[in-house]
């Protein structure tokens, strides 16, 4: 089983003593520790690894790293299954399971491949043009198209792994740990600056991992290991492997994605799978390297056609051979060393086909030493083969790079392409740096920096190793100095020389007539061809952004790393303009995909938002109360007895409170302590009513408006002392009210000497309501609670069962009632004391639902009525509005539109049959049979069955409603389709004179 | 994500702050403001390209309102201070 026919017997940075078993498409293979899934599959001679996105053409590996565009796999199974993972980015582990994607029933026999035969029918824009009519069928078409043109499958089970987020500051962040990044880290590290060096791969080294350069006379990887060890010994340097610098944001915030456990079968206990780092760096060094470009010719997508640097890296780093016989097709000198490496690894190199006219001595020497034939001024015009390439057609080119003359066919099972190098300028571009086009390199390189960063090495077009080392050392020192540290560049070691990249350009090799029909792929992942780019041009999509959206060029998970420059150069050719005039599309974060789970981090499940519970939460729970979320709070809804529904419990509780007595947890109300010599002035400015004559020890209901004159919130203001008040807010508006009051004090009235403190969590609340509430309270305190001592809207500081409490005689239910505030940890003591003391009065606990019924019966407004569109007068607070003082919203509230007689006013509703529940959210209309659109006159804001009246009731906002009591209307719910005939009434259904609460 | 220098706390990440509006909008006097003054204050805002004075609430920090002079094109923050402070123009 351990036969790996395309593995060299020795060599490579793999551990042959650690064989690993893995499964691809159900078949078991072996690889070694140090392999990627890609290198292991290559060593096993598996060439057909994927089907293309649109035409389902057979595909194999093209790249070595993040540039891989073909071989995306479905990795792992079950809940950990993950789609669209490039096989080149998967480190092999024991038991790894991967499947190919986008094929049915199998990779070798794929029904969808019929698309390839019908490809004349599927040009760019085909789906838009064909399925646009009739528009209502699009959801159907889309479903079918998505199925055909699919990528992998999303897992359907809950993600079992956890993800972490980490926040860091550093002086110098270095993205990329190749030769430039390592030298930068040495320079910056020796200065004492806090340095973070990250690299997306399992180990540092970058391009040195896959080549045979020497540094200080030793193989590159050895220098890398030594340097990493030196850096690890510096306490101020943090090394992050398997960590991609994924996004560059404003003010030098760089987001890193660390794949903590992706190289293992499962994360270890308590280990996050990924860790997202939010790094705020004073200075940044970008050393992100470059990616080789493919060349575009007919059928350049056959399995076995790949980047030269990829074949080289597989051979050198993994001892994995891309095939037996290779043809190298290049337009620059960098492929020669690679060709020699392949030859040394045991691959027969048939020829180096070089587009260039004249070759330089160094590369000729390499070819001669390796005994490789060179065909200069030649091109590969087509590849042949189906599930693997078996030969190429090669032709000479004339001085205009047009193929002319005699074609020859060369047998091969690997075609290595080198079309020059594309600097990875993604992070630079994300940081809003400006790019410029370098004609010599035929590549976009960083021009002007926008943030505090600098590029070094191949990512700014310095492709030679010596230049990378020098630039890195210099950039690291510069960054440290800019961050305030004194240092000079670290000593640069001597290294082997490598070729100077000066490509001769031919963006798409014209196919001779006898090779008609071969597709020239520009973007392999999205099946975009040179002809598609031409079609886009022909149809008027000349801008690169339009080109991208029309053809999907560069839209895949590989973000066009290998296709963008070729595509826009072909477009530039059609436009007969310079590439620089065509420009590039915008590079966007992230550089490589990040799992959604990692983005969410800990903000998942119960941690999406904080949950606030009251001190009595567990007591409510033990009685089986369901909870209603109210903002972040959970509020107990009611206490169903055996066999009761919540609705039945609500009716019982609400009736019982009016007849006897009950207690309810009101801890969630917002509470703000207002202190200072100007507190009274402040309150007078923010409430519509005046507090000037509010005595110490008294409460008063207050309403505040927004700046635009509409009602913001209501609450109770209690004067605790001469210059100290406590105000309450509704539960859901608490934080918004606090924010607004803070704004007013800080920005608009800084001269007022007032301090605010949110004390919502410092004081829990219990309301006791019902005719027996005073009787019960008297049993738990020795304080005088008589009407004269604590009248309605009175306040007292008393003692209940040894607990000091604040007692407010206020009523939400309309009954004789008190609210008790106490320290949260004493809540249970007071609650238990009241239940015990009230036993003879048959005291009960009641929940949010019963409280809501009681307040609807009493016509008290809450969120549904305080909906941001109602006026104080409309809600019935007209008499509270002070005419003697100025307050926020006073002037705008007098605008004509807000003072008309026919605006929304609060009314009550009773069904005329006194039986049918009024649908929630119903619209009030005159005649449901009228021609649409029917004029809406108002809306139902709160509704319930009233156990005390024996029939359903509702509160509603009705145009000019106050003058329409007695009118009959229809309440129509467009959601349920229900229509109920209702009579308009006074919104206060119970005790309109307020005799009970004063009793 | 911006890094905002709170005059009371020092440099903090944007996620500690809540945007609180245009610092240039002048609240009419409660006693003397006319309907037109309030209309302009409530509804009308300039949307300049370049430097803009804005208010940020350090809502997950000291809970003070601060004034921030920011270039809305480049996101560069020129200066920060208390709402009543006059900020530097950045021209040196």
What does this structure look like?
The complex is a heterodimer of chains A (999) and B (92). With 999 residues, chain A is α+β, with helices and mostly antiparallel strands. Chain A folds into 6 domains: 1-155, Roll (Ubiquitin-like (UB roll)); 163-290 and 424-482, 3-Layer(bba) Sandwich (FAD/NAD(P)-binding domain), CATH 3.50.50; 294-419, FAD/NAD(P)-binding domain (3-Layer(bba) Sandwich); 676-723 and 733-755, Alpha-Beta Plaits (2-Layer Sandwich), CATH 3.30.70.1400; 764-853, Gyrase A, domain 2 (2-Layer Sandwich); 891-998, Aminomethyltransferase beta-barrel domains (Elongation Factor Tu (Ef-tu), domain 3), CATH 2.40.30.110. In chain A, strands 8, 9, 12, 13, 14, 15 and 28 form a 7-stranded mixed β-sheet that branches. Chain B is mostly beta strands and 92 residues long. Chain B contains 1 helix and 6 strands, in the order E-E-E-H-E-E-E. In chain B, the strands form 2 sheets. Chain B has a 4-stranded antiparallel β-sheet with strand order 3-4-5-6, with no helix packed on it. Chain B is globular.
């Amino acid at each position: 089983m351990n036969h790996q026919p395309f593995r060299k017997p020795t060599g490579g940075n793999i551990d042959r003593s650690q064989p690993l078993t893995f499964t691809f498409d159900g078949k078991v293979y072996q690889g070694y520790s140090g392999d990627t899934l890609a290198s292991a599959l290559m060593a096993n001679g598996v060439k057909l690894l994927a089907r293309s996105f649109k035409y389902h053409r057979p595909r194999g590996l093209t790249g070595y790293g993040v540039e891989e565009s073909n071989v995306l796999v479905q990795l792992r199974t079950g809940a950990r299954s993950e789609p669209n993972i490039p096989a080149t980015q998967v480190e092999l582990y024991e038991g790894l399971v991967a499947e190919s994607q986008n094929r049915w029933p199998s990779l070798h026999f794929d029904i969808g491949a019929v698309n390839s035969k019908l490809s004349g029918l599927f040009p760019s824009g085909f789906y838009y043009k064909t399925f646009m009519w009739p528009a209502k069928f699009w959801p159907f078409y889309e479903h079918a198209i998505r199925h055909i043109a699919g990528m992998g499958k999303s897992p359907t089970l809950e993600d079992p792994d956890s993800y972490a987020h980490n926040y860091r500051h550093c002086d110098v962040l270095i993205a990329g740990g190749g030769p430039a990044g390592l030298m930068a880290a040495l320079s910056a590290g020796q200065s004492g600056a806090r340095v973070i060096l990250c690299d997306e791969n399992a180990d540092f080294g970058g391009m040195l991992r896959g080549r045979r350069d020497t540094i200080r006379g030793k193989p590159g990887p050895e220098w890398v290991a030594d340097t990493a060890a030196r850096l690890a010994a510096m306490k101020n340097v943090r090394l992050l492997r398997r960590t991609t610098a994924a996004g560059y944001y404003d003010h030098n915030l760089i987001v890193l994605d660390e794949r903590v456990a992706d190289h293992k079968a499962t994360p270890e206990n308590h280990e996050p799978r990924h860790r997202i780092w939010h790094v705020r760096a004073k200075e940044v060094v970008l050393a992100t390297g470059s990616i080789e470009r493919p060349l575009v010719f007919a059928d350049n997508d056959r399995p076995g056609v790949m980047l030269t640097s990829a074949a080289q890296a597989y051979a050198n780093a993994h001892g994995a051979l891309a095939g037996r016989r290779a043809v190298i097709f290049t337009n620059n000198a960098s492929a020669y060393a690679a060709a020699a490496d392949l030859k040394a690894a045991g691959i027969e190199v048939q020829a180096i086909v070089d587009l260039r006219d004249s070759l330089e001595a160094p590369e000729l020497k390499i070819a001669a030493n390796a005994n490789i034939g060179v065909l200069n001024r030649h091109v590969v015009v087509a590849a042949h083969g189906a599930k693997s390439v078996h030969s190429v057609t090669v032709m000479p080119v004339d001085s205009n790079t047009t193929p002319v003359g005699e074609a020859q066919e060369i047998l091969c099972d690997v075609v290595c392409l080198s079309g020059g190098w594309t600097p990875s300028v993604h992070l630079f571009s994300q940081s809003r740096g400006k790019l410029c086009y370098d004609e010599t390199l035929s590549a976009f390189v960083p021009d002007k920096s926008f943030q505090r960063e600098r590029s070094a090495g191949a990512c700014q077009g310095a492709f030679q190793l010596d230049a990378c080392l020098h630039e890195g050392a210099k950039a690291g020192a510069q960054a440290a100095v800019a961050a305030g540290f004194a240092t000079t560049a670290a000593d640069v070691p001597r290294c082997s020389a490598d070729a100077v990249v000066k490509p001769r350009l031919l963006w798409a090799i014209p196919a001779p007539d006898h090779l008609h029909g071969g597709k020239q792929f520009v973007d392999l992942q999205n099946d975009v061809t040179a002809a598609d780019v031409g079609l886009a041009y022909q149809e008027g999509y000349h801008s690169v952004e339009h080109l991208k959206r029309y053809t999907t060029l560069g839209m895949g998970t590989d973000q066009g790393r290998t296709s963008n420059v070729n595509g826009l150069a072909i477009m530039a050719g059609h436009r007969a303009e310079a590439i620089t005039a065509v420009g590039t599309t915008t590079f966007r974060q992230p550089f490589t995909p990040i799992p959604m789970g990692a983005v969410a981090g800990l903000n998942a499940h119960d941690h999406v938002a904080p949950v606030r519970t009251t001190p009595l939460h567990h007591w409510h729970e033990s009685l089986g109360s369901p909870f209603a979320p109210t903002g972040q709070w959970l509020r107990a809804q009611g206490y169903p007895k055996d066999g009761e529904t919540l609705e039945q419990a609500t009716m019982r509780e609400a009736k019982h409170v009016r007849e006897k007595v009950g207690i309810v947890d009101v801890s969630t109300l917002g509470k703000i302590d207002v202190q200072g010599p100007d507190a009274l002035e402040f309150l007078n400015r923010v409430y519509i009513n005046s507090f000037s004559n509010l005595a110490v020890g008294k409460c008063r209901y207050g309403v505040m408006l927004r700046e635009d004159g509409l009602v913001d919130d209501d609450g109770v203001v209690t004067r605790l002392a001469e210059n100290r008040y406590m105000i309450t807010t509704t539960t859901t508006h608490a934080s918004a009210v606090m924010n607004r009051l803070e704004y007013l004090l800080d920005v608009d009235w800084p001269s007022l000497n007032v301090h605010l403190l949110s004390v919502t969590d410092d004081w829990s609340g219990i309301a006791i309501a019902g005719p027996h509430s005073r009787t019960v309270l008297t049993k738990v305190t020795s304080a005088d609670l008589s009407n004269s001592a604590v009248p309605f809207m009175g306040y007292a500081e008393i003692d209940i069962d040894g607990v000091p409490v604040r007692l407010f005689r206020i009523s939400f239910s309309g009954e004789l009632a008190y609210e008790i505030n106490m320290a949260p940890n004493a809540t249970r003591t007071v609650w238990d004391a009241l239940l015990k003391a009230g036993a003879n009065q048959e005291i009960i606990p009641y929940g949010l639902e019963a409280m809501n019924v009681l307040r609807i019966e009493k016509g008290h407004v809450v969120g549904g009525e305080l909906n941001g569109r109602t006026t104080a007068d409309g809600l019935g607070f007209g008499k509270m509005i002070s005419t003697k003082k100025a307050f926020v919203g006073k002037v705008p509230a007098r605008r004509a539109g807000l003072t008309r007689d026919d605006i929304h006013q609060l009314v009550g509703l009773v069904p005329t049959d006194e039986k049918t529940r009024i649908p929630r959210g119903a619209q009030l209309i005159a005649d449901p049979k009228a021609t649409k659109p029917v004029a809406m006159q108002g809306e139902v804001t709160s509704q319930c069955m009233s156990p005390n009246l024996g029939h359903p009731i509702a509160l509603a906002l009705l145009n000019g409603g106050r003058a329409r009591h007695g009118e009959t209307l229809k309440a129509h719910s467009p959601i349920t389709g229900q229509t109920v005939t209702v009579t308009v009434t006074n919104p206060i259904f119970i005790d309109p004179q307020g005799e009970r609460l004063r009793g | 994500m911006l890094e905002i220098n709170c005059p009371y706390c020092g440099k903090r990440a944007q996620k500690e702050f809540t945007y609180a509006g245009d610092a240039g909008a002048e609240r009419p006097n409660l006693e003397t403001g006319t309907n037109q003054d309030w209309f302009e204050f409530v509804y009308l805002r300039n949307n300049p390209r370049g430097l803009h004075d804005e208010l940020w609430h350090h809502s997950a920090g000291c809970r003070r309102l601060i004034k921030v002079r920011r270039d809305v094109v480049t996101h560069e923050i020129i200066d920060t201070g208390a709402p009543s402070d006059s900020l530097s123009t950045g021209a040196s």
